Write the structure tokens for this entry.
Amino acid sequence: MMMALSIAAAVASPAHHPKQTLKPLKPLKPILGLPLRISSRLSVPKLHLSDHPFVPEVERAVDSLHSEFRAVDNLVARNTARVLKAFQNVRVGSHHFSSSTGYGHEEAGGREALDQVFAEIFGAESAIVRAQFFSGTHAITCALFAFLRPGDELLAVAGAPYDTLEEVIGIRDSHGVGSLKDFGIEYREVPLKEDGSLDWDALKLAVKSKTKCALIQRSCGYLWRHSLSVTEIGRAIDIIKVQNPNCLVMVDNCYGEFVENIEPPMVGADLIAGSLIKNPGGTIAPCGGYVAGKKKWVEAAAARLSAPGLGVDCGSTPGDIMRTFFQGLYLSPQMVGEAVKGSFLIAEVMTDKGYRVQPLSRIPRHDTVQAVQLGSRELLLAFCEAVQRSSPVGSFTRPVAGATPGYASEVIFADGTFVDGSTSELSCDGPLREPFCVFCQGGTHWTQWGLVLGEVLKLL
């Protein structure tokens, strides 16, 4: 191996050292026995077409998606500007990254600053962002319990909620463990239309006087439906409030953050909730979740997370966690943009191979989830195995379907991620039930999915 070095010598002016005699430089000796080659140019290997890392199907798809990728870059720029402005307005400084232990009473202001940044970005009055939220489901549950009391009714607007909320609500047997049903809270849902869209006519008649909270799930979850745009969410909120102005609207915002340039609180949502190991953690946050919206209800959700009277001014922030929260949030628009590009690429390639996809390859995105209907258990397992094999962590392992807490069906997950369960890095999963769909999320750069798809196509 040759070591190429460029050498520049700076010589002091003789005027400052009249008696100094300048001697010529001695030749450099080889380092560790390696010969030296003095050169002003580095040798760069030529790239040949055969060196391209993508299979032909992926190359063609990438070439065809230029305008879609450009539109995503424009979205990223707008959202990054919004995030940057919030950081500057709150005057975020390095002291906000300090850690705290125990009760967290001596915390240096990072919690409050992070809450304020989140609130401004999402157009909310207030926010609580904490490591103590275990998951998006946990944050959503705290928000629901902030709203609902015995005798109230919860109405799910977009069909059945995500699997992990079924036991929270009491749809599946969770008697005696503190579900909403245990506390005398009733539940109804507005079924989706046959094409998977919201039933607007049914929604206009669905809200009753005892309907205290309407739950809107922005992402598709494990349903074969299109995810909701913020504009559609705003329309649904208007329809709900016309029927009952006192009905509060809670939006499950998981996978939706920064996919558009507006967020649900900007169109009237009373609360939103989500996870930091999804979009707003920027692939860096190691844990946590958030609730944002009207100040009164954020405080009520905080009381559910901790205890009445403790408020939001507590909770330890150990180690380097505050820096990861701030930095992850700042990077989120960029990471979400890459995930959206990846979803376009998956849809384009899999459509070309004859598979049904949701959403379609060229339509605007409203979350970072791309669903592919594979049609059989074997193909679902094979797809997830290919994703795991193409991951940086645990590539040597084989994902196995099994029972997972909170899920009604067996589920298979492929997530070779640095943060356990971080769907924003790159992952896919799916329940082992008809029609055997795989749900793909994340990606720190769209080229990750380009490489993954090469492995997928070998098996399919």
Residues 321-352 form the longest helix (32 residues).
